Amino acid sequence: MKRRKQKPAWVRYEKQKSRAHKARHVGGPRKEDARKRKQKIEIKDWKKPVPKPVVVKAWKRGVRKFISKGGFYKPALKFGKTKRMKLYKGKKRVA
Questions:
Q1: Which of 4, 27, 79, 85 stands the most exposed, by the fewest C-beta atoms within 10 Å?
Q2: DSSP letters of 27-88?
Q3: Quick one: which H or E segment has residue 25?
Q4: Residue 54 lies in domain
Q5: Residue 9 placed within a domain
Q6: Left (φ > 0), alpha (ψ -120 to 50) or beta: where does 48 sit?
Q7: CA–CA gap between residue 71 and residue 94 (Å, rounded)
Q8: 22 lies in a domain?
């Protein structure tokens, strides 16, 4: 019997967080990571905080909810607040 190849840790994290936010995991290049009705969700499994350019790029693609394991730098938080994005560090909402 063949052993099933385990998915990378970041894919498992994306699926776990999309389930926690009651969304469907989408994934794929140039697509959002998850979707809840019309709301697009971006999920990052990074140890370092997410910089502002990454948040801006996601916002231009229509993402309105951003979840990051490592948090966000202050300029990224400020941008998210001004654009009314929902920013999460793990489970906790930060903006």
A1: 4
A2: -STTS-SEEETTEEEEEE--SSPBPHHHHHHHHHTTEEEEEESS-B-HHHHHHHHHTT-EEE
A3: strand 24-25
A4: 34-95
A5: no
A6: beta
A7: 8
A8: no
Q: What is the largest CA-CA distance in the chain?
A: 54
Residue 1 in domain: no
Question: Collapsing DSSP states into helix, strand and coil, what is residue 92?
Answer: strand
Side-by-side strand order, sheet with 24-25: 24-25, 34-36, 39-44, 63-68, 86-89, 92-93
**Into how many domains does the chain fold?**
1
Cβ atoms within 10 Å, residue 30: 5
pLDDT band for position 10 (cuts 50, 70, 90): very high
What is the crossing angle of helices 52-60 and 74-82, to 10°? 30
Any residues with CB less than 8 A from the CB of 62 and at least 6 apart, and which?
A: 32, 40
Tokens linked to 82: 């001004």
